[in-house]
Amino acid sequence: MEFLNLLQNKRLIIVTGKGGVGKTVLSAAIGMAAAKVDRKVLLAEMSKIEEIPPLFGKGNAGYHGEWIGENIFSINLIPR
What we know:
By secondary structure, the protein is α+β, with helices and mostly antiparallel strands. It has helices at residues 2-8, 23-36, 52-55; strands spanning 41-45, 66-69, 72-76. The chain has a three-stranded mixed sheet, with helices on one face. The relative contact order is 0.19.
């Protein structure tokens, strides 16, 4: 419960790290936890292959984004 209280006080959480360490799953979990306490969540990824929407049973959100869950919006900022 302490973690959910911490989320209520944050406007921005950035998850970074080396490839293959679980950033995508951790980001989705943090987003879901924040959404459960009625926070509006933007999950933005920068990848050639979108990984977040499939975790929610959705197709690619793309550059324009899409709501993938209650209070959760996903967007992919495609790198060049």
